[in-house]
Structure formats: structure tokens, C-alpha cells
Amino acid sequence: MQQGGYDVTRKTFEIDPFFAEYTNARSGFLILNLALKRVFDFIGALVALACFAPLFIVVAIAIKLDSPGPVLFKQKRLGLYGKEYTMFKFRTMCQNAEQMKGGLFTFAGDPRVTRVGSWLRKTSIDELPQLVNVLLGDMSLVGPRPPVTYELGDFGSLNRRYKRRFVMKPGITGLSQVSGRNTITWDQKVQLDNEYIQKFHVHGVLLDFVILLRTVKCVLERSGVEEEKIYTSLDDESAAEMARLDTIRRAHQLEEEDLLFLNGANTSGGCLPDTEERR
Known about the structure:
Elements: E1 2-3, E2 6-7, E3 12-13, H1 20-24, H2 28-66, E4 72-78, E5 84-90, H3 115-123, H4 130-136, E6 140-142, H5 160-164, E7 171-173, H6 186-203, H7 205-221, H8 236-252, H9 256-262
Parallel strand pairs: 6-7
Antiparallel strand pairs: 1-2, 2-3, 4-5
Helix pairs in contact: 2-4, 6-7
């Protein structure tokens, strides 16, 4: 039985053949910048954890005093090449919130969000424990945001555009985060994530610095924290379910690139699309 690239019966992970050409044909520029990215990630996360340590203590106390439950929220996410890992966040909702009405979607006024959690979300402080994920090598400071393991449906049957975003480690922030965050659709996020990957091949770690600066601006403005409710005529539970089904449908819908590949006329040269910025 396969779940993404993870064989749950043998407890092993196998890279999807889709990524084979990408991993085998990396340019010297890309290899160098991926190495620099990892060094920058490790040092940046280490320094940030040291600086934010006093804040972590205050937040932990506030969470415990505000509502019953653990300080940290742990959730399985899909990372590089679709490999599962455990992501850390400060808990901002009541316990077992995912099993309640609304599921993974959080609209304005969601009753599952605690008082302290609301403030943590608005300031994005709830994301800071992911610095530990960066130290562990599961995440990067900048990259596509990682979906929950079941959020996009079966990983193996994702269309090529959706699957392509997994060629880079997931990030605490990214191009989609500074371009709308939760106010844009999953389809728009995928488009921006793939744009980031293409631009990284050209600009390398300099692109990460730019995105980090833009992230500071977005955090200060507290923009894009809550999901945009697309199906406004429905109640929150129904709107969340419709959005979930629509996301999975789009993620598995065959597109022109998929049809060309199936017909043996793929001109992309592999995992990354053929663009003028490809390097």
C-alpha cells in the first residue's frame, strides 16, 4: 500500500520517478545554491531560535493558561519529494480541531481558535516552532508551504503541475505566502510555488533574501491570515467541504502538460517546465 512516496507496509520511502530527471540533471549553479541555502537555513534557524527563546517561554505559558491541551501542535505534512514529516506549530485551536466543523479551513470568526491562538495567528508567531524543522533538515526558511498529508488526495496521482512544487523543501515562508497567503486558492499557490522554483534556478539564494524581506512586511501588516471563503452562500462547514473537494479535484485534473506527456510528446525536458529562466 502506497501513501504518496511512503510505503506504509514496508515503512520505506521511495522517490517518485517523476523527480528522477530533476535530481539527476541539476546544474552546478543549482547544486551550489542548494548547498548555500542549507547553510543559510541552519545558521538562520539557530540564531532565530536563540533570539526568540524568551518569547517561546512566554507564549508557552500563555497557551497553557488560555486553554487545555499541549503547547505545541504536531501535524504530518508532505515535504521534499512528498516525504512525510512531523511539522511543529504553537497550538492556536482547541484540541482535536481538525475533527470538528471546518476541517483544515479556518474562516473569519472560527470558534475553534482560542483567544491566545487568534493573536498568535495574526502575528504569525505560531509558525516559529518550524525553525526546529529547519534545523532538522525537513524544511527551509523559504519554499513552498507543506500540505497536510491528505489535503491534496493521493500523492502518486497528482498532476504534473501540482507534483512539481515538491522538488524543493517546504518553507516557513515562500512566494505564495507573500503574495496573498491564505486569501488565494490552492491553484494560485501552486502557480506561485512553481514560479519560485523556476526563479531559484536563475537567482539562487538571493531570491530567498528578497522573500524574507517581503515576509517581514506581510507579518507587520498582518495580511492574509484567514482563508478567503469562496462559497459565500454556504455555512462555514459546507464551504470548507466544497473547498476541500475542489482542491483535490484540481490537483488530480489532467492538464495540457499531462496529456502531452501521456501521448509521448512531452517537451518539458523533465520535471521542470521549459522556460527562458530555466538554468
